[in-house]
């Protein structure tokens, strides 16, 4: 199993969700996060005063997938999240040893 994690623009979250559902994904966890990468922060002006915003609002998506589906799921996310602009985000995968569904005690693939 793999934990696929994606950081995407908030306005692309619905596109990513629809693409994953269409692809047969059964669940995911999302979180609002903030940070910066190559794009850095940005400057905003409010009442003639400049403010530097160091951290950009993003959405973090996490889902557990079978090893055989990992690359395909990552590509679905990338295709749905891409705008072609700096700050589109990142997608990565990490191995997961064990998963247990709390309600039933099911393990591993049966638990996802």
What does this structure look like?
Helix content is 20%, strand content 37%. Helix 1 packs antiparallel against helix 2 (70-81). It contains 2 helices and 6 strands; from the N terminus they run E-H-E-E-E-E-H-E. The strands form 2 sheets. A 4-stranded antiparallel sheet has the order 2-5-1-6, covered by helices on one side. A two-stranded antiparallel sheet has the order 3-4. A hairpin with a 2-residue loop joins strand 3 (42-46) and strand 4 (49-53). The chain has 112 residues and is of the alpha+beta class.
Descriptors:
single chain, 112 residues, alpha+beta, two-stranded antiparallel ribbon, 20% helix
The unreliable regions are none
Q: What multimeric state do the chains show?
A: single chain
Rough outline: elongated
Largest beta-sheet details? 4 strands, antiparallel
Order of helices and strands: EHEEEEHE
DSSP helix count? 2
Q: How are the strands of the largest sheet arranged?
A: 2-5-1-6
Task: Give the termini distance in whole angstroms.
Answer: 9 Å
Based on secondary structure, the structural category is alpha+beta
